[in-house]
Amino acid sequence: METAPSLIENITSTLMFPLAFLFVLSVVVFFHELGHFLVARWCGVTVKAFSIGFGREIWGFYDRHGTRWRLAWIPLGGYVKFLDDESAASTPSAEALRTMTDEERKGAFHAKPVWQRAAVVAAGPIANFILAVVIFSVMLAIYGVTTLEPRIGKVVPGSPAEAAGFLPGDLVEKIQGKEINDFAELQHIVSTHPAEALEFVIERAGKPVVLVVKPRLQEHEDAISGKVTRPVIGIMSAAGAERLHRRVGPVEAVGLAVDRTAMIVTGTLGYVADVIRGRQKADQLGGPIRIAEVSGQVAKFGIQPLLHLIAVISVSVGLINLFPVPLLDGGHLMFYAIEAIRRQPLSERTQEIGFRIGLAIVLMLMVFATFNDLPILKKWLSALG
Predict the structure, then answer these.
(1) Of 2, 9, 33, 348, which residue is the catalytic one?
(2) Is residue 335 within 8 Å of 346, Cβ to Cβ?
(3) Residue 384 reports pLDDT greater than 70
């Protein structure tokens, strides 16, 4: 029979996943839509609604400009709807534009110059990147930077590193010509270069030695993400490796935050490229279920890791939205670039076809991501049973 303390602990643990998920996703979505909203207002666009979530409204209010701020039941995104939008995806409504008065047309999004429309659309992803930089900057300014000397403590038998000639005690100085000062930098480079020969310069007995190693894909259990497949070479850090902690000023913190944000962008793009080229498996692509799982796991470690997760997801959301897929922000920007070159917008029919194709792509990706997340869902159901 379950005791009261263990019952309370189970209930608390169960509630942590949805609450952490709602917190993480709501913050990311809010700042994304806030970027669209603020630049739209600056451009004189009339905003009808600012929504966090989709579907039926839970709570809302009107501001002095007539915008309906709303919280909806389905917490899987959000939208800013303009006066002449046909849908939450900001597809133009030709009928609405035709029936508007001259005064109303002044606030119509689709009647604005192409550069203003592009600025409004780009503002959402940019806001995501800014949010990440702000979070990383604050965390770095408060907690400082900790680096771990990139000294090898163990070489896994039968690994690519052993075959390449790595030995315990080797100090990694450079990889592909890039100076390495932290073991985490080494891990990042290896994880983003699957099946690619990497040139290491190491210090051994006071002398430089050049070794070439090719990472291989290996499945392992991650404490947060579950089973994942990642490139590895088979080395571990030394137990006695020097760990350095230093404080950083506000300016340096911002610079390091930008570097971290850029690292996430390049890592994500590299992973997507490797999936397309067949170098990596697509099992790391996840949807809301995985975000909920990771959010709940990370929340157990406190507010600092949770804020870090918000920054990482914010970068990912901003980057994904810039992909040139109709329906996403990048798709709108692609249409506006074509319009700027042609000096006239694409026909309504062409745009409609594009949005339908975009919707199909987005839906297929959602189904694929959900399929990847089924093991997590099964774990949840078995825990409940």
Answers:
(1) 33
(2) yes
(3) no
